[in-house]
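For the sake of transparency, this paper describes our internal protein records without simplification. Because each token names a local backbone shape, the row as a whole describes the fold. One such record is reproduced below, unchanged from the form in which we store it.
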Amino acid sequence: MDDLDSGGVTGGAEGVRRENLEYLADLIGELQQLAEREGCCTLSRLLAISHAEAQRETRRAGP
């Protein structure tokens, strides 16, 4: 339990953040494809922008 209270948890937290961002990017990408299939052009474009931003955030989160 002491390891959780020390600085050793930082790397784990960063890994979890990156995993969450990857999941979010994937989810937004799926929503964008669904909106496109349903003919929702504006929604699809907005989600495409959001997807690109989520991917950028994932890259910024590091390895």
In short: Residues 1-9 have pLDDT under 50 and may be disordered. The two ends are 26 Å apart (CA to CA). The chain has three helices and no strands. The chain has one domain: 12-60.
